Q: What sequence folds into this?
């Protein structure tokens, strides 16, 4: 995998699917039986490479597969948006990087996320640590900017119905998933981004996610150069057909898509 230079970001969409992925177990709808690889979606996650460093946003249950598929050889930090299992369940698999790179992995997330991780993975934090457990360094974050290895992250605070979720802006790139509400103040933090990623669960309205139409309206307001929809369910439709109906600057993301910013 090539590294980015001159502070350019290389963003890889590791996963672009909803919590049950696409195809859905037992489903024989046109999307789930599609032979187009862009219709096969693992749980939502993204990787940012900049200045020789590698950061992953969320590590769900498909994390191991995503790392192998993209041939990822380095990991400097995992940054969590929120504590739902489709965003944290793969944390145990960072131990491969512990072994090979001989270093702890830094993880970043809100206090609420870190408490959920401690409950979900008690053996990682036990006083009598299990030999094979991942080795992590915890970094709590809030709504203030923070820096990892000279790369600045600006938190974008959104709501997933009532659950706080953190999106992130890095330079001219903004990534938001699992949102159903963004305040005006947080919207102002996104403005000016050249590339914006936003969740769009399905075509009909949903209590805790933006629909495709809702996401499109937000992106029309923000006016980035290009935008990508992620956290997509099979209800959205076939990748090729949906892309034809979207405004020219908006596209469906898909697993393995690489974007340079």
A:
């Amino acid at each position: 995998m090539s590294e980015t230079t001159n502070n350019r970001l290389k963003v890889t969409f590791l996963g672009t699917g909803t919590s049950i992925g696409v195809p859905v177990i037992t489903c024989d709808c046109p999307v789930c039986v599609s032979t187009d690889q862009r219709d096969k979606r693992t749980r939502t996650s993204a990787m940012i490479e900049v200045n020789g460093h590698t950061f992953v946003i969320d590590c769900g249950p498909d994390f191991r597969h995503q790392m192998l598929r993209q041939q990822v050889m380095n990991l400097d930090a995992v940054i969590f948006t929120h504590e739902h299992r489709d965003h944290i369940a793969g944390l145990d698999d960072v131990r491969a990087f512990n072994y090979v790179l001989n270093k702890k992995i830094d993880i970043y997330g809100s206090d609420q996320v870190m408490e959920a991780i401690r409950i979900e993975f008690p053996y990682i934090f036990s006083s009598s640590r299990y030999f094979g457990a991942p080795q992590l360094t915890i970094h709590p974050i809030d709504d203030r900017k923070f820096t990892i290895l000279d790369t600045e992250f600006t938190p974008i605070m959104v709501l997933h119905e009532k659950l706080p979720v953190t999106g992130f802006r890095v330079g001219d790139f903004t990534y938001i998933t699992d949102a159903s509400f963004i305040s005006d103040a947080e919207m102002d933090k996104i403005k000016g981004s050249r590339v914006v990623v936003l969740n769009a669960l399905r075509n009909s309205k949903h209590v805790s996610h933006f629909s495709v139409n809702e996401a499109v309206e937000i992106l029309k307001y923000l006016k980035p150069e290009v935008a990508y929809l992620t956290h997509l369910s099979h209800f959205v439709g076939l990748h090729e057909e949906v892309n034809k109906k979207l405004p020219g600057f908006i596209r469906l993301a898909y697993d393995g898509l690489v974007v340079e910013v």
